[in-house]
Amino acid sequence: MYKRHEDVVSKTQDLSWACLDERISDQQFQRLQELLREQDAARQTYAKCVQLHLDLHHFFRDDQAMPQLDLPGLMGSLAPGNLSCLQGEADVANPS
Fold first, then answer.
1. Best exposed site among 14, 36, 53, 56 by fewest CB in 10 Å?
2. Does the CA dihedral 80-81-82-87 come out positive or negative?
């Protein structure tokens, strides 16, 4: 496991971007889920990556209002034991 804050943030950024770009492997996805379950810094980093992804997506679209994430609400939904939203993504990507 990553001990240093910088290592957690760096690995979470790498895995978050892979996930958002839809190029994440099953093993990487599992690692991202573990980080999000275990590390507050990972959850904060993931939320920031998602917000930046949305901002960039909407910036390059025509005259669309830019949505803002409810980061406190998002952080609550990423609390340990409440990651079912991520499990659903894995199920869609890799149906059993």
1. 56
2. positive
Query: 3-state SS string over 40-88?
Result: HHHHHHHHHHHHHHHHHHHHCCCCCCCCCCCHHHHHHHCCCCCCHHHHH
Q: Is 14 exposed, middle or buried (0-12, 13-18, 19+ CB in 10 A)?
A: middle
Radius of gyration of the chain (CA): 14
Q: Where are the domains of the chain?
A: 5-93
Residue 89: band (very low, low, confident or very high) from pLDDT cuts 50, 70, 90: very low
